[in-house]
Design brief:
alpha+beta; Ku70, Chain: A, Domain 2; 7-stranded mixed barrel; two-stranded antiparallel ribbon; 7 helices; 32% helix
Length: 305
């Protein structure tokens, strides 16, 4: 876990008439990810990104770049940086808890980004009071404040010795689940397939530990860079085989270990059948041999003339 370098925001956490000075730190970081630069394939030199006028092709310097809201094709309302800045709500640097709720009242699809919330300077006692009070009553706080130039709604929860403040997406930022799922066909699964699925889920029950999971993409990139340095090439991977409807039941049985359990029985049955056939063949051959001997014994010998 990457350590927080500095506070992203400092202000006050207020519930009722109790106020505690607090500091906000990012809880996640992408600094450990592998990053790339864009280079010229022919020369190996880094390339620079420039903004150019779409009509003239001339480079537009930073001071000449402004925001534009498109109202029609190639027609924009132009806003300069100071005008955009004036639209930012005034802030008194206070994160006000407006209500206490149970965490499961909020669909996790609304969760945006987590931050560590810690007491700042002399606010430890009021901070601890809120943390322990929420922990004992098993609730979280819904608060709002101006964070990073926007009004943000935040879910505040106890976390270890501190608090976690998770910014929440607004309703207009979350796509409708109904629209996303409308192409999924209506069907009902029951009987053996559903029983096997429940059995497999039961077999796979466990707990989550972040240390047990790694970023396969980052590992693959590291291996790719290493292979390139050594003049090697990574093997191509075949795509996973998709379970077809007529193969689904057999795939479930294999997942549940049914095939593995029944395979020895089938091998035993086959071996038993083969052994039985061999025994029958030996018995038949012995009977035939005995019959041949008896026939020779009962046949009179011709005398020589």
């Amino acid at each position: 876990m990457a350590a927080a370098a500095r506070a992203q925001w400092k202000g006050y956490l207020k519930f009722g008439e109790v106020t505690a000075p607090v500091a906000l730190y990012t809880a996640t970081s992408t600094s450990e990810r592998i990053s790339f630069h864009t280079v010229n394939r022919a020369t190996g030199n880094r390339v620079k990104r420039e903004f150019v006028d779409s009509e003239t092709g001339n480079t537009v310097e930073k001071d000449d770049q402004v925001k534009g809201y498109e109202i029609d094709k190639d027609r924009y309302v132009v806003l300069d940086p100071e005008e955009v800045k004036s639209a930012v709500p005034e802030s008194d640097k206070t994160l006000r808890v407006q209500a206490f709720i149970t965490c499961d009242e909020i669909d996790k699809v609304y969760f945006d980004k987590p931050y560590y919330l810690t007491p700042d300077k002399m606010g430890a006692e009021a901070f601890t009071l809120l943390r322990d009070g929420m922990r004992k009553t098993q609730v979280a706080g819904i608060a709002q404040a101006v964070l990073f130039r926007r009004v943000r709604t935040v879910l505040v929860r106890p976390h270890g010795k501190g608090l976690i403040a998770t910014t929440l997406n607004f309703e207009y930022e979350v796509r409708s689940a109904k629209d996303a799922f409308k192409e999924i066909p209506e069907m009902k699964i029951e009987g053996e397939m559903l029983d096997l699925a429940k059995h497999i889920i039961g077999m796979k029950k466990g707990t989550y530990s972040a240390e047990e999971f790694d970023d396969r993409y980052e590992a693959a990139l590291a291996e790719l860079v290493k292979a390139k340095l050594e003049g090697k090439a990574l093997p191509t991977r075949a795509p996973p085989k998709v379970s077809k409807p007529n193969e689904l039941l057999e795939a479930l049985r294999q997942s549940a270990g049914i095939k593995a359990a029944s395979e020895p029985k089938r091998r035993t049955a086959k071996a038993g059948a083969a052994k039985g056939r061999a025994k029958t063949a030996r018995s038949t051959a012995a009977k035939a041999k005995t019959a041949a001997k008896a026939k020779r014994a009962s046949t009179p010998h011709r005398r020589a003339s």
